[in-house]
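User: structure tokens for Tripartite tricarboxylate transporter TctB family protein, please.
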Amino acid sequence: MLKTANQKIAVFLFLFSIFYLIMTFNLPSYPYVPVDSDVIPMGLGILLMILSAALYFVKEKSEASKEEHEKIPGKEKLMLLGVLGIILLYIFLLEPLGFILSTLLFIFGCSRLLGYKNYILNGVVSIIFPLVVYFAFTKGLQVALPSGILPF
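Assistant: Done. Predicted tokens:
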């Protein structure tokens, strides 16, 4: 039944998605809001369940090609660690700086770390994306995001 690594990971993720969905049913519901607090976590749990079921049926490559694809160059390992560090910094700064400023810094820093050198376009995207997401969630969906040091 669990012959390949994909199948083992898929079963683990499927069981985790069931646990995650059970936990989302325990989230409190709020009156007078168009989108309740459990909608997005529930959607993510269902998506994880579907993707883990799809992963179960994915065929693995042969051993020779698998070993060839599994080698990660040292430079890319450092990039992965850098991205992990930026993600942790983003989580740490989300509450004190707020969603807009921390997301702006995250997008700009992560793009720069990954080698994107068009600073103007990177800056524009880093400013516009968090603003659009922030106002879509806070005004459109009435979901509160951390405002941080900004007055809105």
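User: Anything notable?

Assistant: The mean pLDDT is 88.
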